[in-house]
Amino acid sequence: xxxxxxxxxxxxxxxxxxxYKITAKSDPSSAxxxxxGFLIALGVGLALGYFFDPGNVWSMVLWGITGTTxxxxxxxxxxxKKAEKNAYMRIEGQPGAVGAVLDSQxxxxxxxxxxxxxxxGKTKEAVYRMVGPAGVVLIGEGSGARLQQLLEDETxxxxxxxxxxxxxxxxxxxxxxxxxHALLKTVYKLKKTMTRAxxxxxxxxLEALSSVGALPIPKxxxxxxxxxxxxxx
Length: 233
Hints:
Blueprint: H1 12-26, H2 28-52, H3 57-91, H4 97-102, E1 111-112, E2 118-119, E3 126-132, E4 135-141, H5 145-161, E5 167-172, H6 183-188, H7 196-212
Parallel strand pairs: 4-5
Antiparallel strand pairs: 1-3, 2-3, 3-4
Helix pairs in contact: 1-2, 1-3, 2-3
């Protein structure tokens, strides 16, 4: 009897193609944008070949290969960015969506915890915290009036535990706040106010404060259950 084939996990290339197909289906403009990026890179390569060594076929071929390789890379980056944005849009509005972002896409100079530091058990509004070069960033998830009170309460705690640290308050909401896919871009644009040593010191103080006043996470808001795909380039 023939041996049964074992079910193997799809390779990286197949995974990428699957993600790109889903992205192109949900956002048809992404495929055209990627194609445009490829054609522009290819055109630039051929133009450089003609400019530096006109009439030389070998030069045109080599520059064409360079343009093709660069075009494929650009197209993959465009599709990856689009796929990431679409993944965020699919989980946007769900409790724990901000935690999923903080669990997967943080720069090394920033410290963040995917678990919220404050929660409203009834409305599922939550506050998350990041610490980095721009200071302390409190991220509110939701749009209700009680969320503002949560942010103010956490700000007072930070001012007591780490006086002098800059505190930024952001809201992630589809209606009246920052969109989920633009969250980290917004955070990273904030003005630098702390050194690496200060970031470490403030993080340690706030973690000590959180461990003392830790509260159980209400059911349905666990960010570990809401995960966008990892970035693929």
